[in-house]
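Following up on my earlier thread - several people asked me to post the actual chain instead of describing it. Fair enough. Here it is, all 309 residues.
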Amino acid sequence: MLSFSANRRIATCLLVNLLSSICIVFINKWIYVHYGFPNMTLTLVHFLVTWLGLFICQKMDIFSPKSLPVRRIVWLALSFCGFVAFTNLSLQNNSIGTYQLAKAMTTPVIILIQTTYYKKSFSTKIKFTLVPITLGVILNSYYDVRFNLLGTVFATLGVLVTSLYQVWVGAKQHELQVNSMQLLYYQAPLSSGFLLAIIPLFEPLTGDGGIFGPWSLPALLTVLFSGVVAFLVNLSIYWIIGNTSAVTYNMFGHFKFCITLVGGYLLFHDPLSLNQALGILCTLAGILSYTHFKLAEQEEGKSRLAQRP
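Reply from S.P.:
Thanks for posting it. Predicted structure:
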């Protein structure tokens, strides 16, 4: 019964993450296209609203904050800022295809980090599920892959920092014995402070396109709504990684990418080539294989524990 209850919670959180992540993609696209709101500033708003949401949850006794020394989470907060900065720079200096291909490398890098530094083992079957997923990403983006030195540097740094951030989200929850809300409650304002320090290097603060620019009321309300959805995204990410693993979250990320492509085709009539359709099928085959092997390994582990005297 406990196992069923745990699986139901995981399924619910995955569904919340799926719906909120897809929702925020389209909201952010609307904000960028119709209002020209700057990308990193929008991320700052997302984390400030996330912290405000957690503060309200704490006042409503939904969770109890746990005192954490800043030095124990400062690298987590910095890695988040690096992840935002380098992925934005990668997107600015690479084609969409190159950017997506680089993002797909996050999963194998996470496996490498966890194997090397956290002594976590992954079966050969699990590693082989990366093959159809990578092939699917290549089929989706090969027509738009173009390399240049600066773009490759930013893409590589983006993959490394993103992988570290996702690994640390799970590792810190276990290391500090905190849940997703307790960790995010401290990390969100710290990351916001670091982001505020680096935003002037990339985006204007005043005038048109600046955080203190002359924004209309509809623009501000849409940005605020985006922040509320981001609260659900951030909280579900922390919960998923803390209760499953960074690799499982990455696999789910590939699934969301497929759903977003199909959704864009069905809802907005975005073009979808035969290669992209094959890429989606390959990616989904890899995700289903990973899910099957992961569940089989969990059942095998439970059987071994039950057989112990």
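Residues 38-205+219-299 form one domain. That should answer part of your original question.
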